[in-house]
Specification:
single chain; 322 residues; alpha+beta; 60s Ribosomal Protein L30, Chain: A; Phosphoribosyl-aminoimidazole Synthetase, Chain A, domain 2; 7-stranded mixed beta sheet; 4-stranded mixed beta sheet; 13 strands; globular; disordered C terminus
């Protein structure tokens, strides 16, 4: 069988119904030319985000290609959710050491399934030879002036977090073999980008960010950008129930605060928006809890259920200190 060329790979595995973007009102031109063309409607802004995943650094060697594709796209979509944007499409750069048709078929199937579920289709990209590396850039739209930027938090704002935390971090360490491996794989490879919550919060919330490096680290980014601080009530942190079953409460709380890879949203909003925020959360079937408040003081202060201040040795993942 002749070896597939780069263009054969694109045609066979990526420019297929359900995965490749088709012309429409916003996508004027997709795969097949030097550039994709997008038309930004009046009153909208284009939101862009890009992540790179490298084998043995961001995912293990021999990771399941279908699940790996899902993770690569969904973690990027989470950035759109954090800004309150709605997906339009994405581009893909794929480096791989050799052409493996079985791997490519599984990878493109996972990518297609994720693209169809979240209505974000492939606009184009590039393939090349090299260590397995996946780079995806997502494109989304948000109403002008309503993006949830990190610098928007004000003193007195409530701090909310969606879903539950910690299970994805446990999936990376995998030290509890008694826990269902499929549950760990689901948490790590298939995080749910909170797109409906994020887009609904645009215009309600004051700031937003997704939890990739850890709740304390990512909330710290909001505080730094907003020149504010935060007070957290540790008793209100939504630790994953599965995590609590697999270790003691202190370890579970620390992992939920610092482990990262949850891709849940941190949102801040004035207390006057409490009812609207909870109504939104119910309408999109996403748990949303208030875990503290934004303050004028610098730094993040954590309090336990007795009102005692607590400290943690680390805040989250750092790419060049890991």
């Amino acid at each position: 069988m002749p070896r597939l060329s780069e263009f054969d790979i694109i045609k066979t595995f990526f420019n297929q119904p359900g995965l490749g973007a088709r012309p429409g009102e916003i996508t004027r031109l997709g795969i097949g030319d030097d550039c994709a063309l997008l038309s930004v409607p009046p009153g909208k802004e284009l939101a862009l985000s890009m992540d790179t995943l490298v084998e043995k650094i961001h995912f293990p060697e021999n990771a399941p290609p279908e699940l790996l594709a899902w993770r690569a796209l969904s973690v990027n979509l989470s950035d759109l959710a954090a800004m309150g944007a709605t997906p339009v499409g994405f581009t893909l750069s794929l480096a791989m050491p050799a052409v493996n048709e079985s791997w490519l078929q599984q990878f493109s199937t996972g990518l297609k399934n994720c693209a169809e579920k979240f209505h974000c289709h492939l606009l184009g990209g590039d393939t090349t030879r090299g260590p397995l590396t996946i780079t995806i850039q997502v494109h989304g739209l948000v109403s002008s002036g309503q993006a949830l930027v990190r610098s928007g938090a004000s003193a007195g704002d409530n701090i909310y977090v969606s879903g539950s935390l910690g299970l994805a971090a446990l999936s990376i360490t995998r030290f509890d073999e008694a826990l269902d491996q499929s549950l760990l794989d689901e948490a790590f490879y298939k995080p749910v980008p909170r797109l409906a919550l994020g887009s609904g919060a645009a215009g309600l919330a004051s700031a937003g960010i997704d939890i990739s490096d850890g709740l304390l680290a990512d909330l710290g980014h909001v505080c730094l950008a907003s020149s504010k601080g935060a007070e957290l009530q540790l008793a209100d942190i939504p630790v994953s129930p599965s995590l609590e079953k697999s270790m003691n409460a202190e370890e579970a709380l620390a992992l939920a605060l610092t482990g990262g890879d949850d891709y849940e949203l941190i949102l801040t909003a004035p207390p006057s928006r409490e009812d609207e925020m909870q109504t939104l959360a119910q309408s999109v079937d996403t748990p949303l809890v208030c875990i503290g408040k934004i303050t004028d003081a610098e730094g993040i202060t954590c309090f336990d259920g007795l009102g005692e201040q607590r400290t943690f040795q680390k805040s989250g993942y750092q790419h060049f200190n890991a």
